[in-house]
Write a structure and sequence with these properties.
With about 150 residues, this protein is an alpha+beta fold. The chain has 3 helices and 9 strands. Bound molecules: zinc ion. Zinc ion binds next to loops.
């Protein structure tokens, strides 16, 4: 289980190694992403609170990166955070996400990026539920949910 001290360590020193990398030019990303996805994933945009696809959905399934397909989160770690965006308390795996300090908008936050394709997902905070205490606040446009029944038993 990841805790806040792990996130700080990753952001400050070194992120976990991804299983593989996906690299495209910005022009190639524009061709495969919708304008809304591109604005969030590649330009670090933020979609409006509550008016986004996965804010209030809790169907079982797997949330993958909308850009490269990497599995990022499981629905079992999704919870209601009253933030207006889908919120998770742990990633699907330790190496799925990379972290970096983000000082934009006069705030000190930690940005969460896909570790495979370096696309922007959202931010991670230390006010999530115990025992891990993490809150991943993620844009719906960064995610594609796959139904649980696609998984093998
Ligand atoms: Zn990705």
């Amino acid at each position: 289980m990841l805790r806040w001290k792990d996130i700080l360590y990753y952001a400050k020193y070194s992120n976990p190694e991804p299983l593989h990398k996906v690299e495209k030019t910005e022009e190639e990303w524009r061709q495969v992403l919708t304008p809304a996805q591109y604005a969030v994933l590649r330009e670090k945009g933020t979609e409006p609170p509550y008016r986004n696809a996965y804010c209030r959905t809790y169907e079982p399934g797997t949330y993958t990166c909308a850009a490269c397909g990497q599995v990022l989160f499981n629905s079992t770690e999704k919870y209601h955070a009253i933030s207006g965006w889908p919120s998770f308390t742990q990633p699907a795996s330790r190496g799925a996400i990379r972290y970096t300090f983000d000082d934009s908008h006069h705030m000190q936050r930690i940005e969460a990026l896909c570790n495979v394709c370096d696309s922007h997902l959202g931010h991670v905070f230390n006010d999530g539920p115990q025992p891990g205490g993490l809150r991943y606040c993620i844009n719906s446009a960064s995610l594609i949910r796959l139904d649980a029944d696609l998984e093998l038993p």
